[in-house]
Amino acid sequence: MTPDVDAAMGRALQLAAAAVEWGDTPIGAVVLDADGTVLAEAANEREKRGDPTAHAEVLALRAAAQVHGDGWRLTGTTLVVTLEPCTMCAGASVLARVDHVVYGADDPKAGAAGSLWDVVRDRRLNHRPQVTGGVRAGESAALLRAFFRRQRGL
Fold first, then answer.
1. Is 100 within any annotated ligand binding site?
2. What is the CATH number of the domain that holds 11?
3. 37, 93, 96, 119: least CB-packed within 10 angstroms?
4. Would 55 be classed as within a structural domain?
5. 24-37 pLDDT, tens per residue?
6. Annotation-wise, does 55 bind a ligand?
7. Residues known to be catalytic
């Protein structure tokens, strides 16, 4: 069975919206196994935890590794995230051996899945996930725009 990426992105968008409650940038992530079962999910918690590495993707990958059954290797999984991963998160998905990275909105300022850098497809690395961008991008971008408008008092 192919994972239901649209439904997973819908859940990631819900998680992203919740991050605003504790003052974090609205980004959500879901990790699916090969059958589409949700292994883990998370929202950004940098502000909540006071941790610069507490991006939604990293938190979801860590949690997925605890339940996947192959230690830290997340072979056969799909990472679904509302915003194109940054270099840290793209690198984490490569190192975790994620099969597929699916994201919503492009991030021209910090994206590392093709916009600014392309860490996930760098031939010098030992693993290259398949990448699909633009899934429900408008919804993700709208959440981010509204958040930053509020942050800037506009």
1. no
2. 3.40.140.10
3. 37
4. yes
5. 999 999 999 999 99
6. yes
7. 57
